[in-house]
């Protein structure tokens, strides 16, 4: 089924990749440049899944996840962390911040779609 | 560059552009860091840049780039987390790594050969520096960085205490029947706080095969006692599916540690190891349940493998540069807040445009200028009053045309920063090559110059910088002996000055060894042995073709290319290069360039029935000669006195070969020309038509390149006029006599 | 008979507590739950419904779930239930 996605990444290339992977399969994709921007975009949005990068200017992924989880509406919204790291420590930090899971970059489009569908509708 | 209909190629191209921006930010950050800045955000910026490059590179399967960036990133991360404080050597290595990263980006972009040796060398140095995080490197690269790799890796060792999988279970099982698994799953409280939902997990599990799902309600209290956010349920699943255990566990990857999970293959005697404390298998737990468990068959609708195929095709029809619909929805969000955020901290809003479109626009504006000039001319010829509406309107039209032209030129303008950053690399490499300690100081990085000019400046500047490091600066010992700091300084500056761009390369070295230069020039027959030359003349010998010799060519500035090539390159940009040097203090090269290559403010003059254009920015004033103003220096050589100063006089008609010398210069019109280096000259012309903007039509190769002629233009009446390069004329005409006259 | 209790579209973590509160207020009566608006139900929403149903049944009342969509029924079945079994307070 079609999902409503919010993707937060400071890399234009990565945002393009995400868009390219998801729009053709019918997902609606909202994009933001960093955590703060992500919160602005999230306001009033009901994404099925949020994807976020970790290393970003202004507000990083951990801060963003924290802030999202602080909103009652989004306590259970799945949040996938987009990361090039696969270290256990990073995953634990993401999880402690409230992340649902992680996607290790690089991803191919089908894998990204699948990962999203694993955690939402 | 790429097929416009291929979105991947489009993104790939866009990635490399982003890389350039990231490299720039990174260079900035490293430089700031090197200057002793300890703002944590500085190292963060550098780190993020490498990180983003790595991420993008991974997406395009640029493995060499990913591997290198990864290790570099790890090193930077150590700095970021204060595990490592870089000293001067470490900073040098970081700069080298940045340079190499930049190289890798380029070879990846151009599909050139990957310099693996250099990567290995630098990686080894990083390992030495940081005490080698080698094992981590192995693991990560094998795991994550296969091109277009696995998105959800089965990260079994990622979260701690999971013992290795017992693969013997699979081997022992009979292969001719579909395996049957018993899975027990009990979510813990924390699982819900991470946004994980048991229903999704159960659904995903059921999608693997035929699942029988039973919910265990034993722990569920009555409603009065229920804490709504506490998890009371657990599930027992029987799954008949042609999968191995790893695939089942993969479904629970994200909740590893957030639930109790046991997976047991039916028919095997031993339970597979459980993730956490195994739960006793309850055969009696559901005895009181009246209804049969719901069975979920293979559900084709469960979207496990969504079709990736239409990705490329579906995107293809949309124009690559058009904003995609989803982003428009994003933009619908409260705009003021977003705009404020962007203004405060975010990057400038930027549109990427194909350079070809800009070129086309530049050309069209050029045509517009010509047309406007033609229109002016015909209106004047029609005898309209200067105060008529038409003429007033024309004035406004001219102003607008000029504004449009300026704006269009601004599109092509770029800060010289990227060029300067490339030069800092040249300094690092060349100083290391000759064992000198050199610092590059840059000034005016924000100065904007036409993109083409910037591109074409790279080679000459590289050569000049190498020269400065190689020949300009003394050896460390000599510097110490001369009482200078051991660190030599090369300064690279850019500034706008009276409608031109001035770029200077200076060093604080020993200055030009004029005795040696003269010796070489004499030996090579460039000047007669008995020539008496001023210091400035000798300095200028460096630009003489054939001056550069094999004997003094080091492996750095060398390849037999002399400063004459630099001079030619600068001239082809409509620029000039001058040199000044002071013994013991250093040498400075000044390049003066037009702001743009396309238009020129010119004075249209007549010489012997020819129409010529003199660049307005060199014309200081126009004079009419009186008898007392001119003095003959020697036959055929005149000087003119202008406000107490003597200026050499040249007759343009003679210098260009249009006509014979005049008998008398009394009453002749002269243009007083001045140069950046302060030199002046007076040019005799026959008449002045007007001043106007002209569009430069290059003479490049298609035309002959006559001495003293820089380019051509088309005037309002359609006539072609040549654009003069007065400096060239004077140099051709007079040689040393010019400076003689000047110093008279 | 009481007004049906109209369920929200998402019965997930944030919805569980309000749902439990609403159902606690209806203990001691027959409860009709209108699931027509429910797009998704999670484990926490599910356990509230089951617990409430069991509590009602223990006091001689009953829960009826109406208007469950196919999608909702599918989700329930993925957790081992049907609307009927939930209303019975059993799996």
Automatic annotation (TrEMBL), chain A:
Keyword Phosphoprotein belongs to the record: yes
Assigned keywords, A-Z: Phosphoprotein
Biological processes, Gene Ontology terms: phosphorelay signal transduction system
Residue ranges constituting the Response regulatory domain according to the UniProt record: 4-120
Keyword Membrane carried by entry: no
SMART domains attached to this UniProt entry: REC
Positions of modified residues (4-aspartylphosphate): 53
SUPFAM superfamilies with a match to the protein in the record: CheY-like (SSF52172)
PANTHER family: CHEMOTAXIS TWO-COMPONENT RESPONSE REGULATOR, STRESS RESPONSE REGULATOR PROTEIN 1
Protein name as it appears in the record: Response regulator
From TrEMBL, chain B:
GO molecular function terms attached to this record: ATP binding; phosphorelay sensor kinase activity
Coiled-coil ranges per UniProt: none
Reaction(s) this enzyme catalyzes, per UniProt: ATP + protein L-histidine = ADP + protein N-phospho-L-histidine
Keyword set, alphabetical order: ATP-binding, Chemotaxis, Kinase, Nucleotide-binding, Phosphoprotein, Transferase, Two-component regulatory system
Renumbered residue ranges of the record's region Disordered: 266-346
InterPro entries for the chain: Bact_Chemotaxis_CheA, CheA-like_dim, CheA-like_homodim_sf, CheW-like_dom_sf, CheW-lke_dom, HATPase_C_sf, HATPase_dom, His_kinase_dom
HPt domain segment(s): 4-108
One Pfam family of this chain: Hpt
Record Gene3D superfamilies: Histidine kinase CheA-like, homodimeric domain, Histidine kinase-like ATPase, C-terminal domain, HPT domain, SH3 Domains
Every CheW-like domain range: 599-735
Composition skew (Low complexity), residue ranges: 302-325, 333-346
GO cellular component terms attached to this protein's record: cytoplasm
Function: Involved in the transmission of sensory signals from the chemoreceptors to the flagellar motors. CheA is autophosphorylated; it can transfer its phosphate group to either CheB or CheY.
Protein name per UniProt: Chemotaxis protein CheA
Native organism: Litorivita pollutaquae
Automatic annotation (TrEMBL), chain C:
InterPro entries: MlaB-like_STAS, STAS_dom, STAS_dom_sf
Domain of life: Bacteria
All residue ranges annotated as the STAS domain in the record: 5-91
Classification via Pfam families: STAS_2
SUPFAM superfamilies noted in UniProt: SpoIIaa-like
Name of this chain's protein: Chemotaxis protein CheX
Species in which this protein is naturally found: Litorivita pollutaquae
């Amino acid at each position: 089924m079609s999902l409503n996605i919010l993707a937060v990444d400071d890399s234009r290339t990565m945002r393009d990749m995400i868009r390219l992977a998801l729009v053709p399969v019918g997902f609606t994709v909202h994009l933001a440049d960093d955590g703060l921007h992500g919160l602005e975009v999230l306001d009033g949005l009901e994404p099925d899944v949020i994807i976020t990068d970790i290393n970003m200017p202004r507000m990083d992924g951990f801060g963003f996840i924290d802030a999202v989880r602080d909103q009652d509406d989004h306590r259970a919204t799945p949040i996938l962390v987009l990361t090039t790291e696969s270290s256990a420590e990073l995953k634990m930090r993401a999880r402690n911040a409230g992340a649902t899971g992680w996607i290790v970059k690089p991803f191919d489009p089908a894998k990204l779609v699948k990962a999203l569908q694993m955690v939402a509708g | 560059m790429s097929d416009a209909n291929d979105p991947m190629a489009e993104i790939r191209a866009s990635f490399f552009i982003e890389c350039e921006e990231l490299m720039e930010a990174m260079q900035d950050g490293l430089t700031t860091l090197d200057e002793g800045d300890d703002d944590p955000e500085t190292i963060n910026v550098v780190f993020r840049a490498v990180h983003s490059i790595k991420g993008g590179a991974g997406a395009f399967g640029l493995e060499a780039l990913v591997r290198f960036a990864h290790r570099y990133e790890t090193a930077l991360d150590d700095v970021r987390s204060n595990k490592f404080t870089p000293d001067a050597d470490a900073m040098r290595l970081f700069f080298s790594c940045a340079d190499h990263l930049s190289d890798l980006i380029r070879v990846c972009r151009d599909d050139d050969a990957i310099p693996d040796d250099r990567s290995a060398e630098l990686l080894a140095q990083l390992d030495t520096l940081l005490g080698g995080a080698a094992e981590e490197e192995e693991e990560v690269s094998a795991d994550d960085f296969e091109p277009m790799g696995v998105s959800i890796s089965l990260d079994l060792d990622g979260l701690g205490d999971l013992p290795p999988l017992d693969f013997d279970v699979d081997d022992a099982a009979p292969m001719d029947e579909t395996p049957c698994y018993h899975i027990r799953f009990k979510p813990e409280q924390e699982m819900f706080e991470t946004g994980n939902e048991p229903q999704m997990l159960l659904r995903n599990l059921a999608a693997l095969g035929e699942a029988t799902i039973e919910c265990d309600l034993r722990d569920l209290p009555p409603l009065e006692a229920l804490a709504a956010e506490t998890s009371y349920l657990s599930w027992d699943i029987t799954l008949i599916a042609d999968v191995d255990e790893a695939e089942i566990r993969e479904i629970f990857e994200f909740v590893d540690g957030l639930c109790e999970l046991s997976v047991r293959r039916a028919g095997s005697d031993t339970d597979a190891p459980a993730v956490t404390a195994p739960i006793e298998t309850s055969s009696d737990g559901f005895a009181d349940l009246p209804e049969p468990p719901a069975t979920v068959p293979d559900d084709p609708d469960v979207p496990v493998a969504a079709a990736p195929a239409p990705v490329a095709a579906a995107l293809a029809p949309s124009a690559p540069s058009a904003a995609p619909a989803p982003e428009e929805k994003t933009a619908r969000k409260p705009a003021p807040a977003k705009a404020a955020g962007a203004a405060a901290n975010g990057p400038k809003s930027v549109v990427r445009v194909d350079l070809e479109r800009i070129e086309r626009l530049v050309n069209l504006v050029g045509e517009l200028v010509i047309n406007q000039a033609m229109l002016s001319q015909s209106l004047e010829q029609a005898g309209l009053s200067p105060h008529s509406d038409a003429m007033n309107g024309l004035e406004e039209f001219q102003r607008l045309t000029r504004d449009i032209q300026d704006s269009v030129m601004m599109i092509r303008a770029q800060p010289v920063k990227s060029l300067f950053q490339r030069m800092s690399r040249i300094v690092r490499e060349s100083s290391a090559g000759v064992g000198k300690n050199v610092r590059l100081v840059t000034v005016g990085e924000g100065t904007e110059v036409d993109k083409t000019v910037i591109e074409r400046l790279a080679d000459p500047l590289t050569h000049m910088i190498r020269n400065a490091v190689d020949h300009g600066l003394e050896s460390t010992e000599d510097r110490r002996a001369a009482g200078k700091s051991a660190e030599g300084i090369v300064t690279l500056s850019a500034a706008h000055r009276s409608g031109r761009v001035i770029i200077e390369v200076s060093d604080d070295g020993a200055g030009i060894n004029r005795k040696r230069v003269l010796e070489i020039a004499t030996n090579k027959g460039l000047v007669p042995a008995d020539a008496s030359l001023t210091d400035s003349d000798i300095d200028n010998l460096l630009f003489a073709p054939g001056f550069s010799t094999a004997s003094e060519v080091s492996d750095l500035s060398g390849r037999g290319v002399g400063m004459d090539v630099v001079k030619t390159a600068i001239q082809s940009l409509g620029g000039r290069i001058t040199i000044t040097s002071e013994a013991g203090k250093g040498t400075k090269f000044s390049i003066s360039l037009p702001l743009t290559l396309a238009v020129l403010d010119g004075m249209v003059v007549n010489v012997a029935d020819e129409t010529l254009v003199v660049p307005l920015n060199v014309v200081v004033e126009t004079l009419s000669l009186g008898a007392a103003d001119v003095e003959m220096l020697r036959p055929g050589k005149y000087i003119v006195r202008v406000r107490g100063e003597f200026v050499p006089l040249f007759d343009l008609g003679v210098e260009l070969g249009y006509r014979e010398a005049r008998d008398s210069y009394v009453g002749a019109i002269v243009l007083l020309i001045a140069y950046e280096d302060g030199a002046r000259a007076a040019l005799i012309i026959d008449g002045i038509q007007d001043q106007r903007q002209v569009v430069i039509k290059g003479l490049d190769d298609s035309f002959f390149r006559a001495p003293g002629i820089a380019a051509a233009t088309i005037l309002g009446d359609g006539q072609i006029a040549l654009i003069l390069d007065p400096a060239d004329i004077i140099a051709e005409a007079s040689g040393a006599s010019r400076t003689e006259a000047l110093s008279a | 008979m009481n007004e049906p209790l109209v369920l929200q579209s998402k019965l997930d973590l944030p919805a569980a507590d309000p749902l439990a509160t609403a159902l606690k207020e209806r203990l001691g009566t027959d409860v009709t739950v209108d699931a027509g608006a429910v797009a998704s139900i999670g484990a926490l929403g599910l356990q509230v419904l089951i617990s409430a149903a069991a509590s009602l049944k223990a006091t001689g009342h009953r829960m009826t779930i109406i208007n469950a969509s196919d999608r909702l029924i599918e989700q329930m079945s993925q957790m081992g239930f049907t609307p009927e079994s939930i209303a019975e307070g059993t799996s």
